[in-house]
Design brief:
about 10% strand; Aconitase, domain 4; Aconitase, domain 3
């Protein structure tokens, strides 16, 4: 989302919406600042994009105007059942065989990528995308010392809790990920942060991405949005990642 639009949304405290063809429509699904997300079929997503407005009745209002200035309605561009049937008739098994025959060959651009021929991955000390885990955390022997980080309501899913689509460029503005830009992911330009999903192979990034949705609410900290929790026993309100690190450093956990 362009910075001027983000600034306008924040300044006006606006509730803006998006239309997507997917299977989840929770707050912040498309962008942290987009609170309302509506599920629709792919053609309707295109129609709303053409209209450029959610506050429209596609059944009775035009989605735009042609070169002559005449209104164009959804019914004017929506394919008929006959048109769809004719298109389906053109689909053949041979089309798929042809496309998949060289699926592993790759495009010309793919073939031009310079890669190192090796049986193993060349791990680097600082790697923005992938990071080698030198030691596995031994959790089971300390199960009796586990701490509560979040108390959630209903209608939860993994996408709400640890959203891979959340932009790191926006997430670094929140306490949950304030150090993720350079801490053990290499020096990455802000414009190249991309999303948590693009760096899911780096555990240092994903540890900070756990419960990093800036719209989630934790009943342990009423009235607060984002991946925050209450550190016990001092009751400090901190990011979930910071709380985890404090518990890890604390000698109390071994008692």
């Amino acid at each position: 989302m362009p910075d001027p639009i983000e600034t306008t949304i924040k300044k006006g405290d606006l509730t803006v919406g998006a239309v997507l063809s997917g299977n989840r429509n929770f707050e912040g699904r498309i962008h942290p600042l987009v609170k309302t997300n509506w599920l629709a079929s792919p053609p309707l997503v295109v129609a709303y994009a053409l209209a450029g407005n959610m506050n429209i009745n596609l059944a009775s209002e035009p989605i735009g105007h042609d070169r002559k200035g005449d209104p164009v309605y959804l019914k004017d561009i929506w394919p008929s059942a006959q048109e769809i049937a004719r298109a389906v008739e053109q689909v053949s098994t041979e089309m798929f065989r042809k496309e998949y025959a060289e699926v592993f060959e790759g495009t010309a651009e793919w073939k031009e990528i310079n890669v190192t021929r090796s049986d193993t991955y060349g791990w680097q000390e600082i790697q923005p995308i992938f990071a080698y885990r030198h030691s596995l955390m031994k959790c089971r022997q300390h199960q009796h010392l586990w701490k509560i980080f979040t108390v959630r309501g209903s209608s939860q899913c993994w996408g709400i809790q640890s959203p891979l689509t959340i932009s790191l460029r926006r997430a670094v503005l929140s306490p949950t990920a304030r150090r993720v830009d350079i801490y053990k992911v290499g020096v990455v330009e802000r414009k190249d942060f991309n999303s948590y999903g693009s760096r899911r192979g780096n555990h240092e990034v994903m540890m900070r991405g756990t419960f990093a949705n800036i719209r989630i609410r934790n009943e342990m900290v009423p009235g607060v949005e984002g991946g925050m929790t209450r550190h016990l026993p001092d009751s400090d309100v901190v990011s979930i990642y910071d709380a985890a690190m404090r518990y890890k450093r604390s000698k109390r956990r071994w008692r």
